[in-house]
Design a protein that fits this description.
Helix content: 25-40%
Number of helices: 13
Order of helices and strands: EEEHEHEEHEEHHEHEEHHHHEHEHH
Largest sheet: 6 strands, mixed
Strand order of the largest sheet: 3-2-1-4-5-6
CATH architecture of the domain at 2-98 and 291-306: 2-Layer Sandwich
Strand content: 15-25%
CATH topology of the domain at 2-98 and 291-306: Nucleotidyltransferase, domain 5
Structural class: alpha/beta
CATH class of the domain at 2-98 and 291-306: Alpha Beta
CATH superfamily of the domain at 2-98 and 291-306: ATPase, nucleotide binding domain
Shape: globular
Radius of gyration: 19 Å
């Protein structure tokens, strides 16, 4: 059996050989079935890609994803926000990947808040509250701050940074998609160049020089105009806002749930564990923390089959 997590931008698969991450932008009609045809056998699947704007509504997206998966993996079963598995498209399949992680971790880490920071979003999950988490939609999670829409790679810098201080002057930013969080983290050294797996906003080189160029454009400038140090400082200012936004959501979840610690997963696991005095699940789970829902839904399916 394999575990599959289908997001709007990335397809993540966990099998006996490890973790496989495919850039698979559903809004660009990516060939999901073709990617999955590389795998075989039974599959446990979660999704969040039904929200892609190539679909007119979530049910259309769910139905399309289920059809694509079953073309490649006819024995697939799909985990929903009701904490049950389904074989047909139902509304509960929408954005259930985070709940699969909670289902897998809830007993061993009942005293913790899970922070899973991926390329696009941060999931904040009080693991000791599993029953009350069932049925939560993304809008409800946004309202509870269990879903923070910022990530390590794909966040538009201008969505968090309203202005940047340049030469001591608060400078409003352009709201064009000039730079992404991947640019900021690459410049700051919190991701390596090979971790910059999504296309750059300008479709250009995913290097420090390219990232600095894009960051300078956030204030409608060139690197030659404001200097490398100022462009790099835009990255630092963005990270300060991003870190505070996520930290506040985690703190609120800990206060309301009574959790006593933070555990982290996703490609931001190590960074946020350090910043929030948490513990990265990488120590116990290894590389699968970069695709935790895919691994979690696989383990939940195995547990369910054995019960």
């Amino acid at each position: 059996m394999i575990g599959v997590d289908i997001g709007g931008a990335n397809l993540k698969v966990v099998d006996e050989d490890g973790v496989h991450i495919h850039y698979c932008p559903l809004w660009q009609e990516a060939p999901l079935a073709a990617h999955l045809s590389e795998y075989a056998g039974e599959a446990a699947v979660v999704m969040s890609g039904e929200l892609a704007d190539s679909f007119s509504n979530k049910m259309e997206g769910i139905a399309w994803i289920v059809d694509q998966v079953r073309q490649a993996l006819p024995e697939a079963q799909f985990y929903g926000t009701d904490a049950a598995f389904h074989t047909t498209p139902v509304p509960a399949l929408a954005a259930a990947n985070w709940l699969a992680s909670a289902d897998y971790l809830r007993e061993e880490y009942a005293d913790a808040v899970l922070l899973d920071v991926g390329s696009t979003t941060a999931d904040v999950i009080p693991l000791g509250c599993f029953e009350s988490l069932k049925g939560l939609t993304d809008i409800l999670r946004l309202q509870r701050r269990y879903l923070v829409y910022t990530g390590m790679l794909r966040t538009n810098v201008a969505t968090l940074l309203g202005s940047a201080v340049i030469d001591g002057v608060a400078t409003p930013v352009s709201t064009e998609y000039f730079a992404a969080s991947a640019d900021a983290h690459l410049v700051l050294g919190t991701i390596a160049p090979e971790a910059y797996t999504c296309p750059a906003p300008d479709q250009g080189e995913r290097s420090r020089a390219g990232a600095l160029r894009r960051l300078a454009r956030v204030v409608c400038a060139d690197v030659e105009e404001i200097g490398e140090a100022a462009a790099a400082d835009i990255a630092a200012q963005f990270w300060a806002v991003q870190k505070r936004l996520v930290a506040e959501a985690v703190e609120q979840a800990m206060e309301t749930s009574g959790a006593g610690r933070v555990v982290t997963a996703g490609i931001g696991a190590d960074l946020f564990a350090k910043e929030l005095c948490g513990t990265t699940l990488r120590r116990n789970l290894g590389s699968v923390v970069d695709a935790l829902p895919a691994y979690a839904v696989l383990e939940v399916a195995r547990r369910t089959a054995g019960s």
